[in-house]
Amino acid sequence: MSNNTPRESSSIPLFIETYDEMFKRVEEKNEGAFVPFVVAGDPDFETSLEIVKTLVENGADALEIGFAFSDPIADGPTVQEADLRALNSGMTTDKGFEFVRRIREFTSIPIGLLVYYNLIYKRGIDLFYKQASENGVNAILSADLSPEEASDAVKAAKKYEVDQIFLAAQTTTNQRLKTISEFSSGFTYLVSVMGVTGARSEVKNSTVDLIKRVRDHNDLPLMVGFGISKPSHVNEVIGAGAEGAIVGSAMIDIIAQNLNNKEKMLKEIGENTRKLKEATKK
Predict the structure, then answer these.
(1) Is the peptide bond preceding residue 72 cis, with omega within 30 degrees of 0?
(2) Exactly one of 17, 31, 42, 64 is catalytic; which is it?
(3) What angle do CA 192, 194, 198 make, to 5 degrees?
(4) Where in the chain are the domains?
(5) Is 68 helix (H, G, I), strand (E, B) or coil?
(6) Has 75 been annotated as catalytic?
(7) CATH number of this structure's domain 19-277
(8) Quick one: which of 35, 42, 54, 47 has its CA closest to 111?
(9) Could you report the per-residue pLDDT of 121-150, keeping only the tens digit for each?
């Protein structure tokens, strides 16, 4: 997707790195991409911004930002509690877009949104994508939107030059993989485990098999998430052929464990980010 879409705010940089450019950048260094996930406004707006800045300064290649939702059916307890903290701190869709705009004041790396479709539908599909583009969003993944029902979202994504991302899991048929490849851009998000988000102890063999199967039906870069929490996990999925890894619950656990000690929280997030990024080296 192009990064030349007109921006509403003067605080948005004219240049925003695309996913294609990001994947090329890390590949030239013989690395995979490390992408952390956090919920905008967890535990509060300003602390959350400091967390994102720490992620960027310590090696994040792109960012996955969640908009808090009251019924996140694809997420486990860790992300559910992060959503509740963000909602209790006053986060809304408007504040979510403001949050992304503030991130754009200090980085041009790709930013993807992970949202539930109710938030998009309630605002109006066209308006949501328009505002996402204007505030510096590269991509949108709606966790509960299937490609068969996504024609309006895909249309808006193309109109505003935003990458539309879809999930692929072990249960995804080869035919649906082809549909995902046709409807999406940027990358395909591979779900490494059956079930909801959350840190797991190991990467299953089925995840490696999924990477290989999707590769046969999809030309887009592959990012693996859901359950990826350790440097060894990151190294394993990249070694199996994925272009990168998305880590969420392991980061959010650090936030939850240090709500009363921001300095320790940021220090641990920085250290963990460096270790996870180091694990992307091939």
Answers:
(1) no
(2) 64
(3) 70
(4) 19-277
(5) coil
(6) yes
(7) 3.20.20.70
(8) 35
(9) 999 999 999 999 999 999 999 989 999 999
Q: What Rg do the C-alpha atoms of the chain give, in angstroms?
A: 17
Estimate to the nearest angstrom the gap between the alpha carbon of 100 and the chain centroid: 13
> Which residue type, as a one-letter code, is found at position 178?
K
Task: Output b/e per residue, 144-163; b: 16+ Cβ within 10 A.
Answer: ebebeebeebbebbeebbbb
pLDDT tens profile 77-95: 888 899 999 999 999 999 9
Residue 77: predicted pLDDT: 82
Q: H helices of the chain, where?
A: 19-28, 45-57, 77-88, 93-103, 117-123, 125-134, 151-159, 174-183, 205-215, 231-239, 249-257, 262-278
Residues 31, 61, 75, 243: which is the catalytic one? 75
Instruction: Find the range with the poorest average confidence among 21-30, 89-98, 188-197.
Output: 188-197
For residue 214, what are its two tokens? Answer: 């999707």
- The answer to whether the beta carbons of residues 66 and 39 sit under 8 Å apart is yes
DSSP string for residues in 72-131: -TT--HHHHHHHHHHHHTT--HHHHHHHHHHHTTT--S-EEEEE-HHHHHHH-HHHHHHH
Q: Return the ∠ at Cα 191 (arms to 70 and 265), rounded to 5°.
A: 60
